[in-house]
Specification:
The chain has about 220 residues and is an all-beta fold. The protein contains one helix and 20 strands. The chain has two domains: about 110 residues, Jelly Rolls (Sandwich), CATH 2.60.120.10; about 100 residues, Jelly Rolls (Sandwich). Helix content is about 0%, strand content about 50%. It has a five-stranded mixed β-sheet with strand order 1-4-9-6-7, with no helix packed on it. Strands 2-3-10-5-8 form a five-stranded antiparallel β-sheet, with no helix packed on it. The N and C termini lie far apart (about 55 Å).
């Protein structure tokens, strides 16, 4: 029965759910690279804070919230949303490919942040598109042609949940790779970083820019 299949009798914190890989933890955010294998489902877990979600694959899933009927949901690659605190659920991947997404949990101190300026292209050919705008943060999608460069200001979480050869310039050299699903990066304010596509093909990434947009 569905109720038994998606039981929430035992609930674990999100950072103890094994498919949610905690990559960044500081006073403002916790950022997770989430991967659910085909046919697999998570443990019943609790989201104690608001969180931003970016989906990196097309997916058919079931989200079974505690005390509610399970819901079948369809996601498209690049979809994103802000979810409210308090959700307790099981997620099952109904598809035949891994369900990948990035979750950036907004801790209470995140309300003190002021958002940086919109990412800008500093070299080559690239596309910068704001795909989610909320009072607590925004998500920007970036598509970069080979050798292009983009500047991003903190506070932000950077993610590249696709294959590619993106590199970050922290001091004088582009020597920090952002080339793997689980390589997320925190950029504190007022710091800025530069991203270059050093590969031969289109590179894609997303930036979670945090904080209020006033001023």
């Amino acid at each position: 029965m569905a109720g038994e299949r998606y039981s929430c009798e035992h609930v674990v914190p999100i950072d103890q759910e094994p498919r949610h890989h905690l990559v960044i933890a500081n006073e403002f955010v916790r950022a997770f690279a989430v991967e659910i294998a085909p046919g697999d489902r998570t443990l019943c877990h609790h989201h104690p804070n608001d969180y931003l979600l970016y989906v990196a694959t097309d997916a058919e899933i079931v989200s079974a919230a505690r005390g509610e009927e399970p819901k079948r949901l369809s996601y498209r690659n690049g979809e994103c949303e802000l979810s409210s605190a308090g959700l307790t659920h099981v997620v099952e991947n109904l598809g035949d490919t891994p369900f990948r997404n990035v979750v950036v949990e907004l801790l209470p101190a995140a309300t003190t942040l002021r958002r940086g300026v919109q990412p800008c292209i500093t070299g080559g050919v690239a596309q910068v598109e704001r795909i989610l705008e909320e009072s607590s943060g925004a998500i920007v999608r970036v598509a970069m042609q080979p050798s292009s460069e983009v500047e991003i200001a903190g506070p932000a979480v950077l993610a590249s949940p696709y294959e590619g050869r993106l590199q970050i310039k922290e001091l004088d050299a582009f020597d920090i790779p952002l080339d793997d699903f689980r390589k997320l990066m925190w950029v504190c304010a007022p710091r800025k970083v530069w991203i270059r596509n050093s590969g031969p093909a289109l590179g894609r990434m997303c930036a979670f820019q945090l904080g209020r947009a006033d001023g």
